[in-house]
């Protein structure tokens, strides 16, 4: 079980959270102008790195807020948590 | 006419049954040894409040109910017969005595004064269970992953978390814990508490 530090509530069991996939996926500026292929790419295509990955989590059983975390997909180590709307922190 | 309305209101009040009412006798039996106290506090008023904590409305609301909204995550503030529990960075649960809901909603709405504020009476959503006594922490530790040591989770602390996989609002008071449990989960949590208590109750 991962221990995830909610930016509001502090460290809680992973079971209290919901996973929300890759963070910082920007909504297209002009969705109507996209081709079907471009729209599908926005909707369905996500990075799948081995290593650091910025992703969204929701503290569903707690404060019910969405936030972002930088997790190492190889080790499951969480390097940073930050509130929605904040920029992705630089991790050395 | 007015009499018959009053009579039917009184009748429906008399028929009210709290979600854990059926557990009263077993709670009392489990509390007899003195190391643990289980009980239900039925029908507390609970108002869900959402407002930007930095807005003038938040300040007016604090003044109107005599309790400044606690902004530190996981804390409660009390005053008079009201208690305000932090649920999120812009969300609180205002808890008061049975019957206080209509007046409280009116005071909160008045203080909001048309600003972007949400005030919802959710009193029927949850009931309140008391887990108190020297063994209260031991019982809760059977199903709650939080560190409940008084140094970390002493009086005035609040957490929305899981107890035996059921979502609860856990409130630490000077005289033990209160669990705000959804009505549909109350029987499950009551059964679970009684089961977790066995080793602290049997033989006193
Ligand atoms: Zn949280």
TrEMBL record, chain A:
Gene3D superfamilies: Folate-binding superfamily. It holds the Pfam family SoxD. This is Sarcosine oxidase subunit delta. It comes from Microbispora bryophytorum. GO terms for biological process: tetrahydrofolate metabolic process. It comes from the Bacteria. One of its GO terms (molecular function) is sarcosine oxidase activity.
UniProtKB/TrEMBL annotation, chain B:
Signal peptide: none annotated. The lineage of its organism: Bacteria, Bacillati, Actinomycetota, Actinomycetes, Streptosporangiales. SUPFAM superfamilies: Folate-binding domain. It comes from the Bacteria. Gene3D superfamilies: Heterotetrameric sarcosine oxidase, Probable tRNA modification gtpase trme, domain 1. It comes from Microbispora bryophytorum. This is Sarcosine oxidase subunit gamma.
